[in-house]
Amino acid sequence: MLCLAEGPDDKTTAVELFTKLVDSVERPALCTDFGLGHVELLITVAAMKNRHNIIRHILKWKPEVNADFKSKWPDKPRLLATPLHFAVLGQHLDAVRALLTHLPLDANVVDSKSRTPLQIAAESTEDVMRAIEKLLMERPAVKEFVDRLYRDRQVFVDAANALLVGAALVASAAFASWLQPPRGYTPKESVVAVEGHPTLKAFVQFNALSFFSAIATVLACTHATIPSLKQRFIGTVVKSVRRALIVASILFSFSIVCVLGAFATAGFAVLPSSIEYTWSLWVGTIILGFGCIVWLGAFILK
Q1: 165 and 100 together in one domain
Q2: Same structural domain for residues 160 and 262?
Q3: Based on the domain organization, do 240 and 120 belong to the same domain?
Q4: Which of 14-18, 47-51, 57-61, 141-145 has the highest mean pLDDT?
Q5: In the predicted structure, residue 194 carries a pLDDT above the cut 60
Q6: Could you tell me if 245 and 174 lie in one domain?
Q7: Distances from the Cα of 120 to the Cαs of 31, 129, 130, 181, 292, in angstroms?
Q8: What is the pLDDT of residues 26-73, one digit of tens each?
Q9: Taking Cα atoms as reference points, which of 241, 250, 239, 243 lies closest to residue 217?
Q10: Which of 54, 123, 125, 209 has its CA 20 to 30 A from that of 298?
């Protein structure tokens, strides 16, 4: 089988080798099923079967081949991956080394499940996967990719910490409003004096929503900043932090809207109805409140 390297145009040998490899995995229609050429399929099957010597001889025969192509395997019809993915999934250290050494491939390419070969190795607990992970990390492109993921995580964590501070301030203000409501308490029952004041009823609702949404923001930010012991790959961590940050941003924006509503309704509840006293509150609510909503929209879109 290794005589494939004897001549660059020896197509007969290529077909014979293809037939032997296909027979070895009992898949007679692989070339048709995959939609690949003989060389690509040979590399794929060799990677799956850990035939690292065959991979080296194929690449001597066809050094210009690029192994970034993706194919599927009948046992896993939904998985579309490169030969490097299949070699890592099979825990074939020698095949991984042969592919990385002799092929100009992209080691950061993802499969149909959005996983890189490094992620597959990092999420496994097998000892051989640690060796594969170390081998992948020796490539400059992979190391740069991982460094970028760590930088992204730090940026997201810093943003979550900023939201955490803002949410804590909103929750504190909302909690304090219950201790000192705008019109105080009724003299007999010591409850908030909401009877006969529709705007004060609206204040109660806005204040409650702002408090609970702020607390929910704190919890989402906590989830973003505290690492999970179950997530072994930094890429998975970054995705989790980013999702938590998006949720925290939406909750924080909602709490800000509720705080604005609580402030406006409290102002209308305690001020006389004359325009002489309420004009500044109207201006602030309509103009500056609209500006706040615009900035909140820009914040969410980021």
Answers
A1: no
A2: yes
A3: no
A4: 141-145
A5: no
A6: yes
A7: 26, 9, 11, 56, 44
A8: 444 444 444 456 677 778 888 888 888 878 877 777 777 776 777 776
A9: 250
A10: 209
Contact indicator for 72, 30 with CB cutoff of 8 Å: no
The rounded Cα 261 to chain-centroid distance in angstroms is 33
What is the SS3 assignment for 76? strand
145 belongs to a structural domain: no
Count of domains forming the chain: 2
Confidence band for 7, pLDDT divided at 50, 70 and 90: very low
Q: Return d(Cα 259, Cα 210) in angstroms, integer.
A: 6
Residue 159 counted as domain residue: yes
Angle between helices 127-137 and 140-179 (to 10 degrees): 100
Whether residue 128 is found in the same domain as residue 174: no
Report the distance separating Cα 187 and Cα 201, nearest Å.
Answer: 18
Q: Per-residue pLDDT for 8 more than 50? A: no
Residues 44, 68 contacting (CB under 8 angstroms): no
Residue 44 CA to residue 66 CA, distance in Å, equals: 12
Kindly list the distances between the CA atom of residue 88 and the CA atoms of 24, 82, 243, in Å, as whole numbers in the listed order: 20, 10, 28
Same domain? 155 vs 74: no
Final residue of a domain: which of 105, 138, 171?
138
DSSP string covering 7-33, please?
A: -TT-HHHHHHHHHHHHHHTT-TTHHHH
- What does the pLDDT read at residue 6? 39
What's 102's domain CATH number?
Answer: 1.25.40.20
Instruction: List the structure tokens of 30.
Output: 């692989």
Let me know if residue 144 belongs to a domain.
no
Q: In 66-183, where does DSSP find H-type helix?
A: 83-89, 93-102, 117-122, 127-137, 140-179
pLDDT at 285: 67
Q: Does residue 112 have a pLDDT over 80?
A: yes
Of 93, 76, 75, the closest CA to residue 84 belongs to: 93
Least-confidence region, from 27-41, 84-98, 251-265: 27-41
Residue ranges making up the domain that contains 98: 2-138
